[in-house]
Amino acid sequence: MIRRLFLLYFFFTQACTTQVWVEIACGPQYSCAINKQKELWCWGGDNDYPVAREWKEIPYIGGPRSVWQKLKLVGPDTTINKKRTLINAELNDWIDLSAGSSICAISGNGSLWCIVDMPTTHIELVAPGPFRSVWVDPQQEDYTHHNKRTFQGYALKTDGSLWRFIKPTQNSTSAWQFNEVKLSNPTINVTTMAIGGSHICIISSDGLMWCQGQNAAGQLGVGHEDDVNGLVQVLGKDWTTVSAGDKHTCALKKDNSLWCFGKNHQGQVGVDQKESIVLQPKRVSIDNVINVVARNNTTCAITFNGELFCFGWLHRNSFTAQPQLIPGQNYDAVAIGYMHTCIKSRNGLVHCFGSNYNQQLSASPSTYDLLAPGQLVR
User: Fold this and answer.
1) Could you tell me the CA-to-CA distances from 189 to 60, 157, 192, 285 in Å, in that order?
2) What is the pLDDT of residues 228-257, one digit of tens each?
3) Which residues, 6 or more positions from 268, have their beta carbon under 8 angstroms from its beta carbon?
4) Confidence class of residue 29 from pLDDT cuts 50, 70 and 90?
5) Is there a contact between 73 and 80 (Cβ–Cβ < 8 Å)?
6) C-alpha triplet 321, 255, 246: angle, nearest 5°
7) Which run of H or of E encompasses 130?
8) Hey, is 17 helix, strand or coil?
9) pLDDT at 85 over 50
């Protein structure tokens, strides 16, 4: 009886304290998520500019060890090191999130905000909008010269117009540069897009895919390796989702088939590494894919039944072109950082694995790496 009461108490308290997350995003060495209450939380950082420094030990459901909570709520009356408030209360209504060279999110009223000054985690209004989606430059490298960073990204307004925003350096007091993107083909109606290391790809409302930018590794998928200044159509149709890594691109079709192209030195395109560059979309051997994320030299895909497969660079010197099934199931979202990955399950829990050098897994400082999902983010 005592054991039963203890177990009931344990799971009741866990249910009360566990956050239910609806969206996740990973920067190079930090992670962010929006919960069911539409609050924005971030954890991790880097050696000089952590998102948060407050630690609290909490129990871990998955085993005898414990994880350490390293979360900071971006919202009213929230401080970093008990010194300053991040943003005011009326912004506690986030609906979209992207992370990379900065952390950007869209509030409930459609305005676009970004966090660029990591020492204070100060969030700035970029533009009033109204916007419906945001994509941030992924910042593929692990930068150490913070004063030379460039923050940039794209945002889609509710009227379908695409806008680019940029801020030259971190800690800059200058205003954001914000301009509408004049597409080389004005008939394209943008539904979604992806930003790679030096290229972008767009999917239009008619299911066509268009890419432009550097193309030395075939990351534009247009059959050659020449750079392209204007949007050029990628072979194929019925495209629904696109994601871009450093020098490779992956996309889904309406039939939930997965296709990739570009640099394949570490197997990130999902075909034999003997084919180091793939110039046109090539189908990957995973069926019924509902979500794909390409980042750096890694690709991860989630299937209808909630299984997660990853290929390319997986951990330190481990890489493969053969899709690897990640432990666990019932996943519906994945985000990839510089050396870590976070996954969200359909019940709203988030698990992270990979490098924990800057506590981007929300794990204790003594936990350096996790080779499989093992950290429950609360």
Assistant:
1) 46, 12, 9, 30
2) 999 999 999 999 999 999 999 999 999 999
3) 245, 248, 260, 262, 294, 297, 298, 299, 311, 312, 313, 319, 321
4) confident
5) no
6) 40
7) none
8) helix
9) no
Q: Among candidates 255, 253, 223, 213, which has minimal Cα distance to 236?
A: 253
Q: What is the pLDDT of residues 190-215, one digit of tens each?
A: 999 999 999 999 999 999 999 999 99
Cβ-contact 302, 333 below 8 angstroms:
yes
**pTM for this structure?**
0.82
| CA pair distance 49, 35, nearest whole angstrom | 24
- Within 10 angstroms of residue 7's Cβ, the number of other Cβ atoms is 10
Closest CA to 270 of 278, 295, 371: 278
Residues 6+ apart with CB under 8 A from 206: 189
Question: What pLDDT sits at residue 80?
Answer: 26
Please, are residues 260 and 269 in contact by the beta-carbon 8 Å criterion?
yes
- Which position has the token pair 């997350």? 21
Q: Which of 44-53, 99-108, 186-195, 295-304 has the lowest mean pLDDT?
A: 44-53
| 81: phi then psi, degrees, rounded to nearest 5 | 55, 30
Tokens of 212: 């432009």
